[in-house]
Write a structure and sequence with these properties.
This protein is an alpha/beta fold and about 400 residues long. The protein is built from six helices and 17 strands. The strands form seven sheets. Strands 14-15-13-16 form a four-stranded antiparallel sheet, with helices on one face. Strands 6-9-10 form a three-stranded mixed sheet. Pfam families: Amnionless. One of its GO terms (biological process) is protein transport.
Length: about 400
């Protein structure tokens, strides 16, 4: 049960179709029955089989991609899938199928655009999900809802994926047998929203009404990460519930610093530099107080450095998309970016290949590349995300 977008012509000797599903033919695309004996330069061929079309989960961080890159930025794992203030956009010229999870934690976002329509009300989305087109693309017992919850707070908004984090971590760790790799340091840290321990430092900021999350993230990138002594570090900045309180409204800013290079100790040095910056410029930054935690010494020869956030968050679903033209998914909101309605630029970069219609159905998925977001200090900052995910072997997979 799947919708398949076909963008080229294919010669086949026979085809076994599912009981329910559809083939969407682009202009000039189609299938032709070919007599193998009439083509002397062609062999008998091999059966090409679709891989499991239900294996893609909304909660899998591997499946979301951002086309914007900025050296040094990443997101904690829980924020690598859409948050409640984000806009999710499936391009109209794409086919996909995504599981909504077991239903224990409903998926809620600001809006969803799919098949050329944008859904901002639950009533309209429910009608679409119950339709044949909706059932072909979204499945599982999980609930999907939308709401016009724009994040208007300059200090940012909490992502809202805490309840879904067990499912996010299960999907993230599934290729590793469900177990976290051992962190390559003593006294490793596990920040809020992260699935596994990491090596580095965590700075927690108590903020006032004048704090601006985007401006502070840009300050870290421009003022600190560009310095030679902090080369190889990555930073994640987001608003989280205050860990020492039960009230969700009581929040703080979490700054996660991770070491990815051979040099060690840089995360701790940068954390102390951020504390000194708060001591000197806290009033202007809107920061009232800052504390830090640092992991211990590195364990040399360790086989893994943990799932430090080298792979960025956010925002493009590399699902079952039978498509050569790059689809676009945009997430917007002050949690990460201000809402912006600009059209997507042409010529999107390649994300990763994920052939589903292939001669070797057991082929492993490639590891995702490291991505991050370009900070914008201006009021109208923009973030766009792209990926190319052809599911056909041969010419289409290489396009």
């Amino acid at each position: 049960m799947v919708s398949v977008l076909v963008q080229e012509g294919h010669a086949v000797s026979d085809m076994l179709l599912p009981l329910d599903g559809e083939l969407v033919l682009a202009s000039g695309a189609g299938f032709g029955v070919s007599d193998v004996g009439s083509h002397l330069d062609c062999g008998a061929g091999e059966p090409a089989v679709f891989r499991d079309s239900d294996r893609f989960s909304w909660h899998d961080p591997h499946l979301w991609r951002s086309g914007d890159e900025a050296p040094g930025l990443f997101f904690v794992d829980a924020e690598r899938v859409p948050c409640r203030h984000d806009d999710v956009f499936f391009p109209p010229s794409a086919s996909f199928r995504v599981g909504l999870g077991p239903g224990a934690s409903p998926v809620r976002v600001r809006s969803i655009s799919a098949l050329g329509r944008t859904f901002t009300r639950d009533e309209d989305l429910a009608v679409f999900l119950a339709s044949r087109a909706g059932r072909l693309r979204f499945h599982g017992p999980g609930a999907l809802s939308v709401g016009p919850e724009d994040c208007a707070d300059p200090s940012g908004c909490v992502c809202g994926n805490a309840e879904a984090q067990p499912w996010i971590c299960a999907a993230l760790l599934q290729p590793l047998g469900g177990r976290c790799p051992q962190a390559a340091c003593h006294s490793a840290l596990r920040p809020q929203g992260q699935c596994c321990d990491l090596c580095g430092a965590v700075v927690l900021l108590t903020h006032g009404p004048a704090f601006d999350l985007e401006r502070y993230r840009a300050r870290i990138l421009d003022t600190f990460l560009g310095l030679p002594q902090y080369h190889g570090l990555q930073v994640a900045v987001s608003k989280v519930p205050r860990s020492s309180r039960l009230r969700e409204a009581d929040t703080e800013i979490q700054v996660v610093l991770v070491e990815n290079g051979p040099e060690t100790g840089g995360a701790g040095r940068l954390a102390r530099a951020l504390l000194a910056d708060v001591a000197e410029n806290g009033e202007a930054l809107g920061v009232l107080e800052a504390t830090m935690r640092e992991s211990g010494a590195h364990v040399w020869g360790s086989s893994a450095a943990g799932l430090a956030g080298g792979v960025a968050a956010a925002v493009l679903l590399a699902l079952l998309v039978l498509l050569v033209a790059p689809p676009l998914l945009r997430r917007a909101g002050r949690l990460r970016w201000r809402r912006h309605e600009a059209a997507a630029p042409a010529g999107a970069p390649l994300g990763f290949r994920n052939p589903v219609f292939d001669v070797t159905a057991s082929e492993e998925l490639p590891l995702p590349r490291r991505l991050s977001l370009v900070p914008k200090a201006a009021a109208d900052s923009t973030s766009h995300s792209y990926f190319v995910n052809p599911l056909f072997a041969g010419a289409e997979a290489e396009a």
